[in-house]
Amino acid sequence: MQSKQLEARAFRRVMGKFATGVTVVTFNHDGQPAGMTANAFMSLSVDPPMVLIAVRNQARFAASIKPGDAFGINFLREEDEALSSHFGGRPQAQLIADYRQLGGSPVLGGALVQLAVRANALHQGGDHLIYTADVEAIEESDGRPLLFYSGSYKQLHALDPATCWFDLG
Length: 169
Known about the structure:
Shape: globular
Helix content: 10-25%
Strand content: 35-45%
Mean pLDDT: 86
């Protein structure tokens, strides 16, 4: 299919076949901690440590974060589907987010990984804004990541020794 003929629905379906981890980006909005689910995230540089995220132009995040501002990136655990849904636009009244501070950035307690970052540049990218950010602090714990593929959550069973077997014979 040529780019002139690409339909938004087809493009979204095809891009959904790229498996991603699930992150919640946490930030301060009107003086209160807030968050949004994002899978448009990647490591950008090791030296210096930098990451990149892309968010929709209309997102509260875009109205709240400018270059120089701090925010958090949280890698969700396999059991955190409810958090992903909550921050992805399907709020769950019974869910109470466990916000805490890491290096001046709000993060989610209990996440597999928490990054405290500071936005250093902002670029326009179609209907999204692309943020590059310097990583200022990290915390990690053991566990398996929450994955997203073809419109649904997946689990990473390949890490379970009981499910891995090799035919050596």
